[in-house]
Queue: 3 jobs
Job 1
Amino acid sequence: MRYHPFRHLGLKVLSLALATVLWLTVAGEHVVERGLRVPIEFRNVPQSLEIVGNTPDTVNVRVRGSSAVLSRLQPGDIVAVLDLSTARAGSRIFAIRTDQVRAPFGVDVSQVLPATIPLDLENSLQRRVPVVPSVEGDPAPGFVVAHESAEPPMVEIVGPESHVRDVSEARTEPVDVSGARARVRDVVNIGVADTSVRLVEPQSATVIVDVLPAPVEKQIDAVPVRARNLASRLQAQVSPRTVRVTVRGSRESLAALHSDDVQAFVDLAGLGSGQYNLRVQVDPAPFGVTAIDPAVVSITIR
């Protein structure tokens, strides 16, 4: 077929015009250089190591390119990549070269400042710690928090060895018991106060808070003080013979409590004739003793 140079002449002229405009546009752009602050991306960190301390998270770079290309840069387009695959525990210094900076097409990295990054690396440690429930607020008047528990009671934590050894517990989010008159149950997240330490797996806990009627106090007057473990053929005289005992417990358990139900005594084991000042004791009972008046009595042994 014979070639016709003027066939599709309009298209050829249009193509030439577009190429000319494109060339003029590119030729008219100036190559500029700018300084940018870009993030550091740590890659291939060994599972047995943890980065600790105040780790630098950005570096300054000098980049070159056309003003149009540089003006279109978005945060994250340029990233300094630091490969830690060969890292070891201790205080280390890592170099960041220009070819380790990831940049889009048309952007050349000419300099990185600083050119080296110091890092502290520690061996990783994993251990189990108890879960401690956090409770906030006050129950209804006349009620108290008697006991709180968490399920699971233990969790696995992991982090830098020196930090993990200092962590004694993990805590839950607060469980609000404001105005409660009965048991409170809630599902909340678990965390660790030290931000360098984390849970092996994110977990939540079921926290149970037992809210019971507040214990009351009752004064029992004229409780006789008995002498115990007195040696044979000796006699003992207690002065005063009775004391006032203040006990604490549930309203129901103290309602019918009388002086004969409280066993107060002094222990005379190993004592011979003479006069002594001894502390008054009370046998264990299903109530608590908060005060004994007087707490010390005089004992005369003959």
Note: The CA atoms of residues 70 and 107 lie 7 Å apart.
Job 2
Amino acid sequence: MNCLIFDIETIPDVDSGRRVYEINDAIADSDVAEIMFTKRREQSGEEFLALPFHRVVAISAVLRSGDQFNVWSLGTLDSDEKEIIKRFYDGIERFSPTLVSWNGSGFDLPVLHYRSMIHGISASRYWDTGEHDREFKWNNYLNRYHSRHTDLMDILAAYQQRAVTKLDIMATLLGFPGKMGMSGASVWDYYKSGKLKEIRDYCETDVLNTYLVYLRWRLIAGKLTESQFNDECDVVRSFLADQTQKHFKEFLKTWQTP
């Protein structure tokens, strides 16, 4: 198994908001964001911004390849959006992993498409549909029914929007930790408070939940035996037990608590 489970966290791109809505540079970022939310409510009835207006502040990943298992956030606390996104696509360019996400088709990947356009980030392997590698004609990252990207939310809902559920609910139902004191809706407030590390930590627990749900799906799809599923869960537990970071310790404790 060679797969990369990923998740992104975003905030309002106030620079784009200023440009599109012709907002004066003297207006504070927090006030620009409120204007953007208001404009969005007027357009759609909800505050959730159109995808091009989402600025990526974290991409976290689980890598499972051979005997290797790791969880981390791309870049550092000082990395800008362009560097973070470039690192994501560079990993695909180098390793061509199977991508796994929860709602990656509906949110994460389209956001990354728009933001890579803004920054001019090249990702030929990701965008290949057979022009450079014939194998990618039949199995690429972009086709909904190909397996190089597995969107668990879409698959479990049988591609029916009315049937989708949240990762937190699915993970909790399966006995995994789910959300632990934070949600995507609070990322902007955390960011304004200078808590980027906490955002990255939260994103890392999200990809851990996604990976564990992915393992359970592989079990019911006949891709893992029950023994193999349990072994893979033990790999995750062993990794977490060796970590010193607080969010990993809390994840393991919550997972093991009946």
Note: The domain at 2-253 is CATH 3.30.420.10 (Nucleotidyltransferase; domain 5).
Job 3
Amino acid sequence: MRLAILTGIYVGVVCSAQIGAQKIVELPWTGDAAPGGAVLIGVSLALIEVAHRTAPTRREGWINAQVMIGAGFAASALLAGWIAVVDAWSPAFPGQGFGELADTWRIVAGSLAAFAVSETIDNAFGARLRDLVADPLRVLATNAVSAPLDTLVFLLIAFGSLEFFWGQIEAKLAATVVLGIPLVLALRRALDRPLPVGAT
């Protein structure tokens, strides 16, 4: 049950990030530019660290996190595919369509490739650090490794350049500190509460 709830949150964050990536935004604290989904990728990477606490052992926690990553991967591909299908249908009213949102295949390919690399590395690194360091430090350490990898793979495939590299790094790491760590701590407290009798 706990893993299912966490996976639902994770899938929602990942799909929202994919939609947000369609727009390049100006970061309020530096003025640098980054795809709008970058902030939520910082959150998704942090959520992987919570998955390690959904099982009694490191290996089982790693497996649970990989299940989440697989669900996020599948949902992201499904979202892009369904948008393409609906966009190809004849509209009932003139002028209807998804516009730029339907032209997402490079962004989707970049997202999925970045997903496969960064989230899996984040999971492996985080699983090793479980019980060795406090959760906030674990989130910072894993994201410091996985966020640059995610950015590098995504930008090269989706945009063919590293123009937004620093903006993405700033957005992901800021999201890690401002959103990711508090969310991890709150979810960790919820996971540590004993389940009612008969619940799983």
Note: The CA atoms of residues 44 and 141 lie 15 Å apart.
